[in-house]
Amino acid sequence: MEDAPQFVAEPAAGFNRPLLLSAGRDRFGWALGHLGRAVLGLITGTSVLAVVLIFVFIVREAWPFFAQRSLAEAFGSTQWYPQAAAGQEQFGMLALIVGSLYVTAGALVLAVPLGILTAVVLSDIVPFGLRQAIKPVVELLAAIPSVAFGFFAVKVLAPFMQTHLGFTTGANILNSSLVLAVMAIPTIVSVAEDSLWAVGRDLREASFACGATRAETLVKVVIPAAHNGILAAIVLGMMRAIGETMLVWMASGNAAQIPSPWWDLSQSVRTMTATIAGEMGETPQGSIQRHALFAVGLILLVFSLGLNLLTETLLRRAKTGKGDRR
Amino acid sequence: MRTALKAALVVAVMVVLGAVGTAVAGEQAAIQIEGSTTVGPIADAFVEAFASSHPNVTMTVKKTGSGDGAAALIDGRCQIATMSRFMKPEEFAKAVANGVMPVAHAVAMDGVCVIVHPSNPVKGLTTQQVRDIYTGKLTNWSQLGGPDLPIVAISRDTSSGTYESFTHFVMGKDKMAQQVEYVNSNPQCHARVEATAGAVAYVGLGFVDDKVKALDINGVAPSRATIASGKYPMSRPLFLFTNGYPELGTPIFDFCTFHLTEKGQEIVEAKGFVALTAY
Amino acid sequence: MRTRLRQIANTLFTLAALASVVLVVAALVGILLPMIWRGSGAVAFQGTVEFRRMQIEQLGRGDRKALQEEMEQANRLRDQAWGMLDRFAAAMDPSDLVTRVRQLHREFSTQIDNRDLRRDQTTQLKSLSRSLRDKLLAAMDTQDTSAATANLDEVLSHAEDGPLRGTVAAGYFDAARHYRDAISGVDLARRDQYVEPYRQVRSAVEALLGPRPGKPLPALVMQRYGATRWDQAREHLANVLWAREWVADGPGRPLRQVAVPREQQFAGTELAGLFPLMRDNAAGMLLPRWTFYWQYFIDDSLSGHYFGGVGPEVIGTLLITVLAILFAMPIGVITAGYLIECAGDGPLTRLLRMCINTLAGVPSIVFGLFGLAFFVIYLLPKLGAPQGSSIVSGAMTLALLVLPVVIRASEEAIRSVPSSYREASLALGASRLHCFVTVTLPAAMPGILTGLILSMSRAAGETAPILFTAAVAMGPVPSSLLEPTRTLSYSSYDMAVGDRMAAMAPHNQYGMVMTLVGIVLLLNIVAIVLRGRMARKLRGQ
Description:
The complex is a heterotrimer.
Chain A: H1 27-68, H2 71-76, E1 80-81, E2 90-91, H3 94-125, H4 128-142, H5 146-164, H6 173-197, H7 201-209, H8 214-225, H9 227-243, H10 246-251, H11 272-279, H12 288-320
Chain B: H1 2-25, E1 29-35, H2 40-53, E2 57-63, H3 66-75, E3 80-83, H4 89-97, E4 102-116, E5 124-125, H5 127-135, E6 152-156, H6 161-171, E7 181-183, H7 186-195, E8 199-204, E9 213-214, E10 216-217, H8 224-229, E11 235-243, H9 251-257, H10 262-270
Parallel strand pairs in B: 1-2, 1-3, 5-10, 6-7, 6-8
Antiparallel strand pairs in B: 3-11, 4-8, 4-9, 4-11
Helix pairs in contact in B: 3-4
Chain C: H1 2-40, E1 44-47, H2 49-59, H3 64-92, H4 95-114, H5 119-141, H6 145-156, H7 170-184, H8 191-209, H9 230-241, E2 242-247, E3 256-261, H10 262-265, H11 274-286, E4 289-292, E5 301-302, E6 307-308, H12 311-342, H13 347-361, H14 364-382, H15 391-415, H16 419-427, H17 432-461, H18 464-467, H19 488-498, H20 500-504, H21 506-539
Antiparallel strand pairs in C: 1-4, 2-3, 5-6
């Protein structure tokens, strides 16, 4: 019998150690591994730490405001006069909150139909190659900074509204809503398109087999099947619109009022974000106005987080939920 | 291997940047100037003039409003606060409580001018009429002898010294109406009035040019002569505030006395304001 | 019948959908195109000889000899215009003479102070000079020829005074004689008709051609040069040739603007010849030429953004975004790696994911608030840095903002590495960490890089987080990371609404926004191309 083949090669550098080690034999390696994992875990915890810190610091600065002022004044009054003589300041945030809602609602009214229709075109009407070419373009458009849009709103759209539409002021709800809609559309299109695509061909083919036209398939079958994803897209667009600062600061007119006939979009409003951005610099540390601005920030934060949670739930339901999915 | 190299490169860049940062941080004198958008152009021009005479001093200018300047001086975030109004008693108290002793240097004189679009035939108003516009009692130019256009009242935001001066001279205890539009700076007021036929706003004298029309107030037109003599009802000085009086010979001292030199006053006049003296 | 209806509905739906796409594309093109078009006007334009002069004098860039020749050529025509204006001004608007007389008094006072005289002598001389000055000013101010001549004669009576001889005060008498000659043949009473229009014409010509050569330079750099661009020049030329007046249009109606040719305004005076001269020779006086000013992206701005470029803003933006990515990358990649490799599916992991999603949902202004409250006010002073905005605070705030993006992109990239790589590496005996660092991470690197580039573009475009933490409107190029800086995003906002200079130089406003949008789009395109190549490489396996 021959000798069993000798698989003895020259051990390469670094391979002197036997390959299989138990924890007992390689205590050093075991400890290092666990230590390394702990360190990495701590670094990972930075995200958690950041969220905790954000909450802590914002609540810490906002709390004195709520301690000193009644909630009824903050949420019920529209009188925002932070710089009145000492002792007579008024911090009614209702006008600010309504302003944000007006601008967001206006933006969504335009962005949702346009966005969903565009998503439909991308997922169902346009050939695959064109879709692959257009998707990056949509992402590109989502990346344009908001200052550029604000620039356009102030320099081009506002004068146009004043000279050709006869508005008394070019910085108003309509201006901000129009441009905000253009900003929100790419977000809505990406997410809606992904969820429409995820519905799968089988559902569509079944509908076509029953004799439905493409429009009927889309409206009655595909969109309802993707409704969670589409709702998530809408909510994401809403988040983008509510959190937007620079555009509304430049284009909404900053008048802390609720528009007088409620449907008059040619009036100016002020949003929460623009208030914070505009007034923050003038508040010295510890003044009641600074606390009020942090309180507005807290309201904004809570609102955004609520919407975020909603988006997450909807997207999770879209992935695991009803309908036939691939 | 490539990752390790990349990581090493990254760390090296960070270390170099940080080292450069901390090494250089102590050497150059940095003066931070914050505050009013009215006095801002003067501060900008002074800083530019200083670039050649004081090359080792870095100066930064932020123009967001007199109130911002006061807050920054109180918090110690800036060395010079430019303000188009005097400090309020609360600001003074806060400053002293923080160990900051505000000292005012008047660098120029200014008048708060009420401006309208040049196509508006109205030539002048009384302070009472201006107050009625801003409290919402007057809503159409036809009530003042002008065309049938709704009045678009534009105000500076509350951090502005120009706003404070205007409130002090015109509004008294009344609050502005809710539909008054707020903008953040003098140039924005100017731009809004230039573009809107029915607009009325108020800016510093240095921002009045041929694209807008300044109204007479109580019969007096705003001009260098009427502001310097105080005849124009809304004349006011423009200030620089520092923490204590600056030490003689320091760059801050030079900055705060630059308006006393010929070049400084030329700059003030070139920017459209009224020099303190008839040099 | 119903089928036809349904088919029509189908077609309408398709048309509506396509129309909405067209609308969206049109909106975006309509927003971006003018910005890019007008912004490119800041880089490629017709520059005049004033522009070349400014480049040489302020930035030391250009050919001095060629400029000399051009200036001589232009001055041949310009001197004619200046001559006409001066001759008219001698009687009609002596404001230059007034300034000169005031300056004489100041120079005389300085000269007297430098001599060693007794105090009462100094005071006497100074008050003599002051009275001469005041008489001259009174003479130049009045429209009554006899009163003016009387004052001038009084001044000239001191011409032979001993103590004044050999001093600067001789200038008083020259001025008096000059003025007396100027008003001798002119009807001073007409002055108030012409003074204001003359001043307008004068300032328009100075805006067009720059200040009159031979006079002391104005204090502001902006006023030392005429129109640097031909489109600007055409506007100023229009101001020279036409007067815009607002005339009544009827009671209760707004005023109407009419353009009155200035030749009409000055008909019958010596100045009437100026306007045809300017109209026909403007190009000869300014010598416009197509210029490609690529240094726009690296030059500092002069005179608040009136001249110059966006160099410091570009540097500031790059510093802040690179630093933000440097902060975010290690944390993000490690978090992604941890989530995929080590974390199970327990409550801790769910908490982690929830926190990352929470971070993604915080509005940018709230990040700014947090940056102010935590980094600027709390953390940096604790570490010994001076209080105030700084690049470091801004970068850390931006790092938090882009962290979710980095984590998500890294996760996607790491997940898309085929498991065969991992299994092969583990089979060869590498530990999990070794496998991750040497096999998975390099394979995922293109994807991670794509994510980093996307976050960089996001960070470059954000304004709200750096409003209170890092941005200033005017300031030098930062020499240390603890200083605040100008950035493209904040300066674009400032130029659009806050800056007065910018309104006079709209091409600079658009140029800055175009630079910002250009950088952001460039980064995104690079990321997309990278992603395409990576996808192709992975599919090719």
